[in-house]
Write a structure and sequence with these properties.
Two copies of one chain form a homodimer. Chain A is built from ten helices and eight strands. By secondary structure, chain A is an alpha/beta fold. Chain A has a four-stranded parallel β-sheet with strand order 2-1-3-4, sandwiched between helices. Chain A has a four-stranded parallel β-sheet with strand order 6-5-7-8, with helices on both faces. In chain A, strand 3, helix 3 and strand 4 (87-90) form a beta-alpha-beta unit. At the A-B interface, helix 1, strand 2, helix 4, helix 5 and helix 6 of A face helix 1, strand 2, helix 4, helix 5 and helix 6 of B.
Chain lengths: 273, 273
Amino acid sequence: MNQPRPVFFISDGTGITAETIGHSLLTQFAGVDFDTTRIAFVDTADKARAAAEQIAAAGLRSGLRPIVVNSAVDAELIALLGESGGLMLDVFAPFILPLEQELGMKRQARAGQAHGLVDFAAYESRINATNYALTHDDGVDLDYDEADLILVGVSRSGKTPTCLYLALHYGVKAANYPLTDDDLESEELPKRLKAHKRKLFGLTIDPVRLQQIRNERKPNSRYATIEQCRKEVARAEALFRAVGLPSLSTTHTSIEEIASKVLAQFGIKKHMF
Amino acid sequence: MNQPRPVFFISDGTGITAETIGHSLLTQFAGVDFDTTRIAFVDTADKARAAAEQIAAAGLRSGLRPIVVNSAVDAELIALLGESGGLMLDVFAPFILPLEQELGMKRQARAGQAHGLVDFAAYESRINATNYALTHDDGVDLDYDEADLILVGVSRSGKTPTCLYLALHYGVKAANYPLTDDDLESEELPKRLKAHKRKLFGLTIDPVRLQQIRNERKPNSRYATIEQCRKEVARAEALFRAVGLPSLSTTHTSIEEIASKVLAQFGIKKHMF
């Protein structure tokens, strides 16, 4: 059997930048088996030496040169990591010089800064949005005046994780409203939603997939029968069409993609935290 | 007044990779005012042309050359975007050739693939973990056998958003337990936590900051007095020390950093979604 190729995501901060770009790079080499390890907060020479030893050991063990996706910015730390013998991919390095030239200034190098210090205002907007999503989940609280947007769909169509993702990443206040059997009897919007039509976005899902998800949650319930799922989805989609709601199928769409498309639909410019 | 420098995060997918690395790059140039715009799902020549026009217009308006952080991989799309006249920073380009050489194969170029198709198993692990976090939030459900870890701390110390972040991004099942006045009367672990000591991680926070957060939530309550916050935090920290729990102050720490440090503490290797 082939050994997997060792890959290390190294950072002087959380490692999220290194892991995000590294993961995107690796998916462009389908069929290769990678063994990924994250080493975060490498912000001293000692930690860089320890990381380099760990990388070198993985190379010896596997007989394959490790790939090091590195977002640490300090030259000394980078040099120490390079002693591992791994293939160094420094994620910021290629872009610093062109940016310095364009902006007419030197970047400020400081370990760990890439992810910034905590901005209390930004933190609060994320936390407030998260609390909002939690209290306006599944129609629990129906006061939607404060909502930036409201996701509408049948139970288990992906509303809750999308709302939480929008809150945690963008500080967007997203409520969600589950379409009940009663709601689905007509092709009109439920009364409580009518005043907020411009904030609504529909989520739909393939009935077979929905049935799988519901069956995991409530095995052998009526709720999880394929007939019930088919009926609810067909009616929800008919409702979206009848009232002209923008909508999206979540069946083959990741949470990130749903969130991204919803933001694009509403032209929400908030940047990611 | 100076015009802000226009910056565009362009992607053939969600734009998360471009935005993550772009944002990290920009923070290295403190003091520059940037006006950032995300254009996601640029996966056709028409969309690339429209994006290029939008970029060029921003350049004209501001009188400053736009910066384009681009994660689209198709050469034709990149060329069209380049016609905007912006400074092109292609986030994958510098790393593809070294990776191709190291792996002895060509990468597979396909628009939008960087973020992959949806992997149902991964999706399910995120959703299940999110449901777990929601049902095991603030001591609602006390069955911790399934938990990967349990965050412990006083009310509003940052437990809930961290649990949700761990669930959405890593598929980690994180429960949280709020320390009540009763719990804080002794320096022993609450009975329900004793059996799970190896899964526990303490969160603490500066009492002045805690007071601010609580006061926003319940203005002028006893809960939000500085005396109450000081007392709870001091006792929680004493408890962590007495029973030897690993802990972290969330005062100056972003959700990403808390999550990262918690994963490192438990040696959880799950990779980011």
